[in-house]
Each structure stands twice: as structure tokens, then as C-alpha cells.
């Protein structure tokens, strides 16, 4: 069995890419309230801070900071994914199960990167907020509803017309070191 190497830093800040099993689906935006409730339920029992997030139809990117002394991001993702599957199924969403009885809604694993410093944090925030443009879902980052960019604009971190340098085509050709391929 492959041993995945994860960097567990108690109280650390992490970038994640979490994707649906069906990368053509729009389940996350169709069930955005279910996803929000799933995050809220898990945060109520296993706190963490969402620094930045964007939810696209078939995947999401997030930056989290965990509490001091706590490095269990995997357990939190497992709980969020399970709560989302239960909630979506309760709305009538078809949930396909594999031979082991596991729901095939989410990809099994996720991409994780430990944030090293402020520049790394800023670069990942920019990546998260530009992602809807990169995927052709919005003309500019602020046009996408399911993004923390609106909070960043309210707080004056980004101007209302913020965009990263380069065109969406540049971002598609060179996604950089982040957790997905164009």
C-alpha cells in the first residue's frame, strides 16, 4: 500500500484541494447550503479557521488554520465529506456506492500543502480567489458568489476589481505548484 506523506504541523495553516469523484458534476454549487452546514457542524466540534475558500462545481480550494496543538486536518475533511454526503442524500441527490458500500461522491484523497510563510499564504489566497476565472466560470474573481474574496474585499485586503497579473489563459497553461492540473 502506498504511504502518503503528510506534513502534520500542530496549529499550522494548510492549503487544500478537495474534489468530487465525478469531475464533470456540479454537485457542490447545487448543494452549497448542505456544504456550508457540513463545515459548520464539523467546526462546532473540531474548530478550525477558514482563512480563504472557493467552492466550484466539482472541487474546492481552502486555506485553514488549525488550533494550537492540533494537526488533524484529515479527520476534519473526513467528517465534512461524510456530512455532505448524508445531507445531499437527504435532499434526494443520488449517491452511488462502490462494492465496499462507500459513497462515490468525493475523491478519496485530497491535495494538502503546508503554508510556509506570508508570501506562500498570499500566493495561495490569490490562487484560491482567481480559480473561478481560471476555470472560465467568472469574468473576474468578484463575480463568483462562492468565494471568500468578498470578505477580502470588505476588509480592504483586495480592491473590488482585484485580479492577479496575467490572463486566465496564462493560469490554465501554468497552474504552478498548486493542487490541480489545468
Describe this protein's structure.
The protein has 182 residues and is of the alpha+beta class. It has one domain: 2-Layer Sandwich (Alpha-Beta Plaits), CATH 3.30.70.1290. The chain is 36% helix and 14% strand. It is built from 6 helices and 4 strands. It has helices at 27-30, 32-45, 73-90, 118-134, 149-154, 168-173; strands at residues 13-19, 49-55, 59-65, 111-114. Strands 2-3-1-4 form a 4-stranded antiparallel β-sheet, with helices on one face. A hairpin with a 3-residue loop joins strand 2 and strand 3 (59-65). The chain is globular and about 45 Å long. It starts with 12 loop residues before the first strand and ends in a 9-residue tail after the last helix. The model is unreliable at 166-182 (pLDDT under 50).
Compose a concise summary of this entry.
The protein is built from six helices and four strands.
Percent in strands: 5-15%
Total helices: the number is: 6
Low-confidence stretches: 166-182
H/E element order: EHHEEHEHHH
CATH level-four homologous superfamily name: Transposase IS200-like
Overall 3D form: globular
Strand order of the largest sheet: 2-3-1-4
Largest sheet: 4 strands, antiparallel
Total count of strands: 4
Give helix % range.
25-40%
Please identify, by name, the CATH architecture: 2-Layer Sandwich
Radius of gyration: 16 Å
What is the CATH fold-level name?
Answer: Alpha-Beta Plaits
CATH class: Alpha Beta
Q: How confident is the prediction overall: mean pLDDT?
A: 88
Q: Would you tell me the structural class of the helices and strands? A: alpha+beta
Distance between the first and last residues' Cα: 28 Å
Amino acid at each position: 500500500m502506498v504511504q502518503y506523506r503528510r506534513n502534520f504541523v500542530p496549529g499550522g495553516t494548510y492549503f487544500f484541494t478537495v474534489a468530487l469523484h465525478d469531475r464533470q458534476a456540479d454537485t457542490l454549487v447545487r448543494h452549497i447550503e448542505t456544504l456550508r452546514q457540513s463545515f459548520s457542524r464539523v467546526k462546532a466540534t473540531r474548530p478550525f479557521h477558514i482563512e480563504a475558500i472557493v467552492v466550484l462545481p466539482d472541487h474546492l480550494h481552502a486555506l485553514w488554520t488549525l488550533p494550537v496543538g492540533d494537526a488533524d486536518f484529515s479527520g476534519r475533511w473526513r467528517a465534512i465529506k461524510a456530512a455532505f454526503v448524508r445531507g445531499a442524500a437527504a435532499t434526494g441527490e443520488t449517491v452511488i456506492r462502490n462494492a465496499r458500500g462507500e459513497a462515490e461522491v468525493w475523491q478519496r484523497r485530497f491535495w494538502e500543502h503546508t503554508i510556509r510563510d506570508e508570501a506562500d499564504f498570499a500566493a495561495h489566497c490569490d490562487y484560491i480567489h482567481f480559480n473561478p476565472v481560471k476555470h472560465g466560470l467568472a469574468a473576474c474573481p468578484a463575480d463568483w458568489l462562492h468565494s471568500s474574496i468578498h470578505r477580502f474585499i470588505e476588509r480592504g485586503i483586495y480592491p473590488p476589481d482585484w485580479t492577479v497579473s496575467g490572463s486566465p489563459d496564462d493560469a490554465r497553461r501554468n497552474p504552478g505548484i498548486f493542487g490541480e492540473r489545468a
